[in-house]
Structure formats: C-alpha cells, structure tokens
C-alpha cells in the first residue's frame, strides 16, 4: 500500500454536496463521472496528495443507495493506492482477509479497483486502487 488514494463519502444530493465541499475545502471539484456498473455518480476533490470522492446513487438498487438507507450519509470507504492490484489481492487473501472482489474491475477516475469486506477491517470498507493501464 502506497498512500491513501481517496476517502469515499456517500451523499444523497451530489450538487448540494459539491457546494458543501467546495466551501469546506476552498476549491471546486475537478471531475465528475458516472459509473453505470455501480449505479453511482461521482465527484472528485483534490486535497494535497489525496482525494475526496463524493458518491451519489443513480438508482435505488445501487450499493450507495442501500448504504445511505441503512446508515445515512457519511464515509463509505477508505481507498489505498497500490502498484500491483492483483498481487495485493493475492497477498490479502493469503493473510486471511475476505475480499468482495477477487479480481480487479474498472472503477472511477481511470482506476482498477477491488474491495475488501468491512468485516475483515474492523467495519471499514477498504478499496484498493491501481491506475488503469492505457
């Protein structure tokens, strides 16, 4: 693990949350993106070397919609940058951690991603991120 890549925050209203985080961070988001496979719209803010990713559901079956229904808005996941996501998945499995994704998939912000189950990390959903090759 190289660094905290981003912190994912589940929100009900992406435009309202963009305005809130613009005021909090003192800068505009630099990118919005829709990830159809996850039923989510995202917005990214840069803060130092890390990012804040706001996530809003695009449908009622989205994992974000279910998260907000169960827990309300707030921190959804903690993402770590890795050099080799496949090797990191393998290492974590060998350590006995339960992974939601045993193979990387395409995520937002030109990343390959995989998630570790919160039950394996003291209730925190952990995301592994690797820059997707061009």
UniProtKB/TrEMBL annotation:
Pfam families xrefs: Glyoxalase_4 (PF13669)
Biological process, per Gene Ontology: L-methylmalonyl-CoA metabolic process
Single annotated GO MF: methylmalonyl-CoA epimerase activity
UniProt keyword annotation of Metal-binding present: yes
Family matches, as Gene3D superfamilies: 2,3-Dihydroxybiphenyl 1,2-Dioxygenase, domain 1
Keyword list, A-Z: Metal-binding
Keyword Lyase in annotation: no
Lineage top rank: taxon: Bacteria
Start and end residues of each VOC domain: 3-131
Family in the record: Belongs to the methylmalonyl-CoA epimerase family.
Name used for this protein in its record: Methylmalonyl-CoA epimerase
Organism whose genome encodes this protein: Salegentibacter echinorum
């Amino acid at each position: 693990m190289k660094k905290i890549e981003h912190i994912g925050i589940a929100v009900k209203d992406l435009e309202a949350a963009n305005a809130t985080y613009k005021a909090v961070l003192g800068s505009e988001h630099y990118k919005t993106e829709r990830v159809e496979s996850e039923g989510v719209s995202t917005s990214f803010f840069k803060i130092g070397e890390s990012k804040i990713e706001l996530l809003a559901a695009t449908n009622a079956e989205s994992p974000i919609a279910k998260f907000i229904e169960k827990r309300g808005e707030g921190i959804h996941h903690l993402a770590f940058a890795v050099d080799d996501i496949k090797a990191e998945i393998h290492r974590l499995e060998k350590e006995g951690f339960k992974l939601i994704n045993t193979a990387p998939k395409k995520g937002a912000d030109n990343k390959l991603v995989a998630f570790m189950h919160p039950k394996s990390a003291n209730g925190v959903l952990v995301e592994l991120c690797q820059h997707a090759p061009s």
